[in-house]
Structure formats: C-alpha cells, structure tokens
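Q: My labmate handed me this sequence with no annotations at all. I'd like to see what the chain might look like in three dimensions before we decide whether it's worth expressing. Could you predict it?
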Amino acid sequence: MLELGTEIKDFNSFGSRRGNDRVMTRGTFANIRIRNEMAPGTEGGFTKLYPEENTTIYEAAQKYKDSGTPLVVLAGAEYGTGSSRDWAAKGTLLLGVKAVVATSFERIHRSNLVGMGVLPLQFKNGETHKSLGLSGEEEYAVLGLTDNLKAGQDVILRADDREITVTCRLDTLVELEFYKNGGILHTVLRNFMRESLRE
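A: Here is what I predict for the chain of 199 residues:
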C-alpha cells in the first residue's frame, strides 16, 4: 500500500480491505490478541519458520508452500470464535493449512472450514495439544481418511511416531462430500459438470 501512496495512518483495518485477497490472506491470524506458542514473545501474526527463524505467518506459509509442506494448526477451545465469517476459513486455506486440530470449534467457523476443504479434527475427552505434549514442531499425518469415512468418525493423528485418536468433525454426509471434493466450490463445479455430461 505504501508504494501506491497510502500512508500508514490511512491503512485502516484488514476488514475494510476484504475485497483484496492479498491483504486479507496476510491478515489471517494477524490479530494482535493471538499468541502463537511457537513464537513466544511475539504478538499475533508471527510464527517460527524452522529451524529457528521468527517471521510473519504469511511469509512462513509462503516458504512452506514453496517447499510443498502442507500445514496443520493446533488450537484450543472454541477455535474460530469471533472470526470474520467470510475470510477466516478462506485465509486459512490460502495460507496452505490442510487441517485444524482443536479442543473444540465455534460452530459456524467449523462449517466454514469444511466448506473451504480444510479438515477440522477435535481432540477427545478434554485432551489438548498441551496435555498431549504437542508443540507444533512435530511432523503430522492423518490416518483413516478413506472413501469409507463416516460422519463424526474417529481417525488417527500421527505426530512424529505417536498416534493420537481424534474425532473427524465432518458431521454430516453433505460435509463428507464437500471435503472429499475439496470444498463447496469444487462440489458445485463437479455436480455441474456431471449434469452437463448427462445432457
């Protein structure tokens, strides 16, 4: 914005620029009230780029994307509460996040993640990433995402050499279809193409 002649005092908020995908993606997770445990001592919008560099979440996400590394978010209770409805899940997807593992989800945000093709996973029995000793430095995989996956089924979250049972929060058959197709838009396009071929 500076190169376009906009002064810092006129930047306003991310929300006022919601029509600009580059600004909004940079603003995802940038709320100054967010504390990323991977980058202690920083305000929202920063993370650790391994092995040890602290940088913005956006810059780290771009570097991970360039190296072909998909991302996972570890989160606490009521993840997504107070989020900007239209951009919170969209920005998460555009940063390269493939799954969010949380203690619990805010209802609408969980649904929006599914709509974007981001997998919501929930720790079981009151467990948290902290109680399980997960720091975010682990390498993750989700086991059990087969064509036979049922709504609300448990799957395995592999964190390095540990296997943790979590609940897959695809709660309905419709959400299963959305996720299998990569989100709502992909589902609509595939259904449209299927109908076109029948004509």
